[in-house]
Design goal:
single chain, mainly beta, SH3 type barrels, six-stranded antiparallel sheet, 10 strands
Length: about 100
Amino acid sequence: MNRLKKGDEVVVIAGKDKGKRGTVSRVLKNGRVVVDGINLAKKHVKPNPMTGEQGGIVSKEMPIHASNVMLFNPETGKGDRIGYRFEDGKKVRYFKSTGKAVDA
């Protein structure tokens, strides 16, 4: 079960970009997320005159496994674990350390 959503601010906790923060731009079905500015890879692109695309080396954001990122808690300034609970009949995400709702 994936606890991250598009637009969440996350902190990388493992890998070459450990400690960096970014925003989730896509959540993939295989348990991976694409984070803006994180896990960049160089891709060689051929020029395409039909679309006006210029050739060269382009930096591309690659997916990172969801277990290697934590949701950023602005109250503590660190990454935090997420839980679910029901409030007024709605399922709400909350930070485990403070108990406050994420989306509120």
